[in-house]
Specification:
Blueprint lengths: L5 H53 L11 E7 L10 H4 L4 E8 L2 E10 L2 E8 L1 H36 L1 H11 L18 H50 L9 H26 L10 E3 H12 L7 E9 L3 E3 L2 H17 L3 E10 L2 E6 L6 H12 L11 H12 L2 E6 L5 E6 L15
Amino acid sequence: MNRRTLRARIATGLLGYALLMAAAIFLHGYIVNEAVERTVWRSLLETELDYFQTRRAADPRFEWPQTETLALYRRPLSETASAHLPLALERLPPGLHDEVALDDHEVVVLVRDIGDERVYLTLDISDLEREERRLLLLLVGGSLLAAGLLAVLAWVVAGRQLRPVTRLAAAVDALRPDQRGQRLELTDDAPAEIATIAGAMNQYLERHERFVRREREFVDSVSHELRTPIAVIAGAAELIAARPDLPAAAVAPLRRIRQTARGVEQLIDMLLVLAKEPKRLSSVDQRFRLEELLPEIVLDHEHLTRDKALRLQAGPFAPTLLSAPLQVVQVAVGNLLRNAIENSDHGTIELRVELAGVVRIRDPGQGMTPEEVGRIYAALARRGEWRVGAGIGLELIRRICEHLGWRLDIETGPGRGTLAVLDLRASLVSEGDAGGVV
């Protein structure tokens, strides 16, 4: 959504105000001008007509001297028309009439009944009306020019006045969540309102730093508490493996326990890096083949299907060489597979890599409605309020994908199961550069 800047709003508002004021002044001037004109015309024509009436009373043979601007017409009241009276004047009642068209001229007419005659005294105002229209155009043009200059001035002044706001917005945009000690600095010309906002933001940054510090301390404490039992399990497994009377049937499960303990310890390290220094994830260069890792993940999760009529179908797997944190890939795929198992009761769960680096897990579960899928993606966009099973959850997978350039898509529908697509192609390594494969 494109939003107008405050600067543009101020300039537009002032321009609108200027145009409104110009229109109001023009309308007021027009009304006043028309009223004054009618008063002047009435006074002038009544004076002339009074003079004619006085002379006419003194000398009935007196005739009005016609000029280019003043003309007098008479019509007996007993007649409705006269050959000497212009048609434009015939229907005019007694009184003053402005801007009457008469023979390509504009005239003002004063009509009065004198004795048994109706007298029409006309004044040619064509030149005056033309001058009035010219002045009107000059006035309108000057008003528009003044409004335009005011808009430009408002734009410049608003830009200067809003410069502290712009600098504050740029300073806020430059803040980085992984840096400590960040504060907003104010210039000497910053107004009191900007200082208030900056002060509130600095207080928030301080509270945020304290919160992050507490979270990191908590993560350190939890990681320590997790490492202790893992170390105990690994140590006990080492001691048991060293016993000479160890049954042959226990060798493989014991090896599995030791491998899992090491994997969990590595996973804790990765999660700790994700929580404290996520940028380090992209620098981990563990090279391994995905088609060799996926069967192990399937084997680790087969026990979850024992009480269900479910079958895990693994393959085909396109040859894929990755350079990424192995334990992160293992846990991400394992979490999606666990989710598929937990949401299905019978049928076949397919795990495939048809395109190198793209893991597809399809389950036969009930699926989800579009609304439920929308809530999942909305939760992921908000850094997640939704969790699946007892694994690391979709939110953590999303964070891992964000830092490693991966992508997670979920396609589903009621009655047709769910398809989870984990795109790992950002970590692909060419087959010719396979040195150091784990």
